[in-house]
Amino acid sequence: MKNKAKYIVMMVATVGQIIGIIFLFVNLKAALLFYVCYIIAIILLFVLLIRERIKEKREDDQNDYRDY
Question: Can you give the chain as a three-state secondary structure string?
Fold first, then answer.
């Protein structure tokens, strides 16, 4: 489930940036709206990646066998 969320957010960020660039020449308000969606998607992607890294770190700490 988390991988799907990551890929969806990454797709939204990519498409939002591309459509934002296109709309800069067509409609400035729509371009700003797409850039806001792009920024929100990037922030959400970083949050998902940081949360996943913290979870991996906890699992690594629990399975630490260096003291043997």
Answer: CHHHHHHHHHHHHHHHHHHHHHHHHHCHHHHHHHHHHHHHHHHHHHHHHHHHHHHHHHHHHHCCCCCC
Could you list the mean pLDDT of each consecutive 10-residue stretch along the chain, which spans 68 residues? 79 85 88 86 89 85 69
**pTM: predicted TM-score of the whole model, two decimal places:** 0.72
Contact (Cβ atoms closer than 8 angstroms) between residue 19 and residue 34? yes
What is the chain's mean pLDDT, rounded? Answer: 84
